[in-house]
Amino acid sequence: MSAAGLHLKVLMSVTAGHFYAGECYVFLCTYWVAAQEGSEEEEENEKEPEETQVHTVYFWQGRDAGNMGWLTFTFSLQKKFEQAFKNTLEVVRMHQQQENLKFLSHFKSKFIIHRGKRREPVDRTRLAPPRLYQLRVNDSLICARCIEVDAKATSLNSVFCHVLNVPFDRSASNGIIYLWVGSKASEEDVQLANELAKEMTKYHYTMQIVKEGEEPDNFFWNSLGGKKPYDTSADFLLYSRLFRCSNEKGYFTVSEKCADFCQDDLAEDDIMILDNGEEVFLWVGGKSSEVEIKLAFKSAQVYVQNLRNKQPERPRKLLLTAKNKESKKFTKCFHGWSAHKATVQ
Questions:
Q1: If DSSP codes are grouped into helix, strand and coil, which group holds residue 196?
Q2: DSSP assigned state of 111
Q3: pTM above the 0.70 mark?
Q4: Neighbouring C-beta atoms of residue 189, cutoff 10 Å
Q5: For residue 162, what is the DSSP state?
Q6: What is the pLDDT of residues 142-178, one digit of tens each?
Q7: CA 288, CA 78: separation in Å to the nearest integer?
């Protein structure tokens, strides 16, 4: 069920797994929970315990969607769910790329995030723009996501599989889907990307598998703005770690984020430490305090020194960065990096 602005629309099951960053979605699940086993005496005197139903409503909010969808849900649809399911209802709110594993498991690794909205106004003055998607598995196959990225050659990486959607008309009703297989992509990724590309191939579209180095010059490179250098390795996946430095609890703490971190985990009012295997970045939030900056810098120095002892073959450099000043070495650690969300004053 899509919650676009103030309008709620039930979606067909074939669209499950396709999410748009400019929209919100309501996903209702019913779980059957087995009753707990009692004692032997209880089992003799009583009937077999029946299974109980638990209903969970997941509210998914895209990173470009406002809070109006959530407000619409809480003041209208949630009340209807509560009346229908009484005390068996649980509501879980999630933001894009910060989904929990229970929610992601429903999609069996076929989780696609598009930019914009499901129905965009058609620009009749030009062809529909190409769309490029990158498949990346963070930590485990359950956390696999195929996310739309900037449609340019520099977004490619030899370690990943990419899906390129090239429309032939203004309404994107026909065209070609390229599955670009990086030369260093794993067999599991290639198989999953092939399944995703087939799902993204519409009725009037054709699909073509392209291996790295065998790209056609006509539509493929032209759609990406011409052939340009791109990354051929992703060693950072083996070493990437993100830490949050904060004193919001009244004392200074450094806590590590899970391996499945994203761009929106960069807290505006805190300091973040990112290790990519070559450099350690100290990312300064715009609303962080001087005390946090000083203590986070000390913590980063200790972290770098500790790594020099544990991993002498990979010495790290300590670098300083800030919001909107991030380099490619920093942003590549975040799947689907795009412009930061505007800060609400």
A1: helix
A2: -
A3: yes
A4: 20
A5: E
A6: 999 999 999 999 999 999 999 999 999 988 889 999 9
A7: 36
